[in-house]
Amino acid sequence: MDNNQILSAKAEIEATAAYRTLTDFFDADSFCEIDAFVKSDSGFAEVTAGYGTVEGMPVYAFAQNSDISGGAMSKAQAAKLKKLYKLALKTGAPVVGFYDSVGGRLSQGTDLLAGCGDLLNLGAKLSGAVPQISVVTGTCLGTNALAAVSADFVIMTEDAKLSLDVSGENADAEYNAANGNASLIAKDAAQAVKKARELVCYLPSNNLNSAPEADVSEPTLQGSCIVSKTVDGGSKLKIADPCGDTARIRLARMNGSVVGVVRTIGKKLDDLSAAKIAKFVRFCDAFSLPVLTFVDCDGFENLSSAAKLSSAYAEATTVKISVIVGKAIGSAYIALAGTGANADVVYAYPDAIISPVNLEAAALILSEDAMKVPVAEQSAAAEQFAKEKLSAFCAAQNGYIDGIVGEDQLRKALISALDMMAGKRVPTVAKKHSTV
To answer: Which of 197, 218, 326, 382 could form a disulfide bond with 363, CB atoms 3.0-4.6 angstroms apart?
Structure first.
């Protein structure tokens, strides 16, 4: 193939969906391609890769090209992606991958497996150093799926497939969202690109930089949940809602700065909710994003998930502020708002309740006379006992609550606490990592 033929073939690639995906993802005229002419067997490599800016922030990205051999992973594709990963690690910029591949070039045998292993190794080195986002717009099965799910956030289109099982079983977006593999669901590829751009704008370039700031806007006060009434208006980015029924996680802004938000919504934390909170808290800690936790929780459904979540909070050295907006019962208080969480500041609503066990048990243990009522009236008696003896004011008098704040005062109190804690520095015990 002579030079003119090569240029002609390259022009055809620039007309493919994968190439357009990257030009749509990056700011206009900012995309610079890496290894544009690398070959795989008789044609060009099955992936387009390069760098550019998103709202002015440098980002590396790649898109598997399903128009070339179905986007199949190959030695050439792996080598191209390894170069991109290494550049991202050197320069401290996020990596966004668009996945759409039929699998791998199995004829390359162990060379292919080695290349895939190298990619997973580099992805692990990047983890916690720069943010990683995977966007699944088509088929992503087997080893490709393992690489995609190793990212910090996964965006899937409604018709995409993501699974280790190459048969595609349990691979749809709904299944992956419910099980915590997919963070965001997009209607189509165009919306997935927009969501990826939006998400990048909430993240720091690396673990040494701060997240991008934005103009301050007043929160939504009418008909909204406590989070919307507290964070900057229009800044709340929902993440992983279908995963777990008893907690919500968000990226948002407070006074223009990015924070991670956790909100438990009553009852006991189920396993999936606890797992997604733990992962989110560890991400926020890795990139020094403050964590605001709104606590209304009766405890945990599972001991193992309770231990993992408690460990995630206790080990995190980023700024942690907890607000008890309802009940904080036993292990929930310890893990999310107490000494186990190692919270820097703890606020509570005036009607909040902090109890070592469920309210009826607490009333029976601490004041047996209070429960000497008919069985039908015991629940109300326990609630009344809790208001009198287990209130936020009682906890504050014992030094376990830093302040009692009303809903109208909360935003101002949180902004003040975040400003005061902005310079937080905590030395930690020398170790490789925790084992919980």
So the answer is: 382
Contacts of 221 (CB under 8 A, 6+ apart): 229
Q: Cα torsion at 171, 175, 181, 184 (round to 10°)?
A: 110
Q: What is the pLDDT of residue 167?
A: 82
* AA identity, residue 235: S
On whether the CB atoms of residues 353 and 400 are closer than 8 A, the answer is no
pLDDT in tens, 112-141: 889 899 999 999 999 999 999 999 999 999
pLDDT < 50: residue spans in the chain: none
Q: What is the pLDDT of residue 380?
A: 65
For residues 175 and 155, is the Cβ–Cβ distance under 8 A? Answer: no
pLDDT at 363: 53
Q: Write the pLDDT tens digit of every residue in 418-436.
A: 999 998 988 888 888 888 8
How big is the chain by its Cα radius of gyration, in Å? Answer: 25
Given this model, what pLDDT does residue 29 score? 95
Helix (H) or strand (E) holding 97: strand 95-99
Predicted pLDDT at 56: 96
411: left (phi > 0), else alpha (psi -120 to 50), else beta? alpha
d(CA 63, CA 34): 12
Are 308 and 282 contacting, i.e. CB atoms less than 8 angstroms apart?
Answer: no
- Return the exposure string of 281-310: e unless at least 16 CB atoms fall within 10 Å of the residue's CB, then b: bbbbbbbbbbbbbbbbbbbbbeeebbbbbb
Q: Which residues pair with 238 in a beta bridge?
A: 250
- Establish how many alpha carbons lie within 13 A of residue 176's alpha carbon, considering only the half-sphere containing its beta carbon: 32
Residue indicated by tokens 């704008």: 201
Closest CA to 37 of 11, 10, 4: 10
List of domains in the chain: 3-200 (3.90.226.10), 237-352+391-421 (3.90.226.10)
CB 257 within 8 A of CB 289: no
Q: How far apart are CA 214 and CA 201, in angstroms?
A: 9
Helix, strand and coil in the chain, % to nearest 5: 40, 20, 40
Count of beta carbons in the 10 Å neighbourhood of residue 74: 23
